[in-house]
Amino acid sequence: MEKRVQGATKLLDGSLERCFVDGLEHRDAKVIYNCLRAYAAIDNTSSAEELFRTTVVSPLIQKIVPQNYAKAVAGACSDGLEDDYEQIKQCVENDCKFILEISSSENSGLHVFDFLGNSILKEVLSAIQKGKPGAFSPGKPKEFLKNYKASLGFLDFLEGYCQSKSAVTKFRSEPAYTDFMRQWNVGVYFSLRFQEIAGGLDSALTTTISPAGMNEAQGKPLLLKQSIKLLESLQACWSDEVLVFSHCDKFLRLSLQLISRYTTWLSSGLSARKASDGSPNSPADAEWALSIPVDDFIYIMHDVHAVIGELSESGSFIGHVNQLLASCPIEVLNLVKQSILQAVEPLKELLPAIMNVMIGIIVKKSNEDLKHLKGITATYRMTNKLPVRHSPYVSGILHPLKVFLEGERVNYLSEDDKTKLCRGCTDKITAIYYDLVSEVVTVARKTQSSLQRLRQGAQRRVGASTDTSDNIISDTDKICVQLFLDIQEYARNLGAIGIDAREIDSYRALWQCVAPKDKQENIQF
């Protein structure tokens, strides 16, 4: 009986095939319907799907997608799929829709067929693999993304023919659908984009710090090439030309890593500049900060404020990201926002460090003039010279700060930052000034005390009176008078830049140190 059964089966399959093909060629809905019922009854849906693929779909697709790969390589066509998909959609609409409607009609019992996956999508995949295999290659990220998005759009188009959610689920579970999605190696695509974006920022951060040109800075609230590159890199992560929605978690992680890399670059440079040793032990990405002038730190301060503003809750970046992820639950959007805000916190913490570096550079320059203060001792030691005006070094103490405040770049600092910088510089300069003055006065008084004891000892040996006092002013008094004249002039110089010397604790100590006894209670200048 086995041979007879096989013969009968072969005869039935052959007759049913001829009948089905004839119905397809003539678009005879009644014949097609009856054939499909027969295929369903004998549980041989795959034969019907394959016949439809080879008879109807394949000839149409072959006219659109070239099957000769040699021609494709020779440049007869590109690996782009967008135009091909548009033509394929037209073919599906014109030449395949009829059988999709028949197989999906209610109460037909033909829902077991999947012509979308096993006929149309299977043939499209085969055609692309043979004619345009380069379309699946992530080696050209830009073209790959266009083809990938076009393919997702094509799948959405096919799913539009599904009559229910269960039909969509069934379509997505078909081997043809799985094979089609497996061709798109989005993981490799992301790795290439990661190298491109992260590598671009890293290259910018390893170059000498420099202001951007007008073309680079156009439309951006930033001044330095490094900062502009950070913003461009973050925008690239979430641009339509780069982002793959299914990998948005990885692009979010990349965004946070970019912010962290920029922050680390700044932090390393500030630490190296604060150490000011220029030793070879400094990190390679910190060398930029060792020799740049103080004016460049104005740009850094400005850009850090601008980056923080751009990445804040009121900035455009978070709003743009949330707009792209609008289909996600609100809990996810809040987590994304919080992760970005937390990534910016270490950058905010660098603002005082930038300010301290600027203050340190200015104070260091001022120290060069303060060192001349020690020459006052030699000027009045064992001489009859009397102080009549302030010392020349006083006018140079605040000169570096004045030059800084009069520079063109200072306009990029906010008024609040200008005030903090002025107060920070003058506080530190005055504190150093007090230390030097205190040292000079202490040494002078000790020296005077030692000389006085020697003089009294010599007078006792010769029998002279030891309680006689000189009418002339002592060297220590002359030194203190000169220092008093100096700090009065220094206070006037402070007032010229808007700082009240009486508000500086170190200045009050300075006044107490050298002012005459009758003037110590009331600071006047």
From TrEMBL:
It holds the Pfam family COG2_C. Residues 182-487 form the COG complex component COG2 C-terminal domain. This is COG complex component COG2 C-terminal domain-containing protein. It comes from Urochloa decumbens.
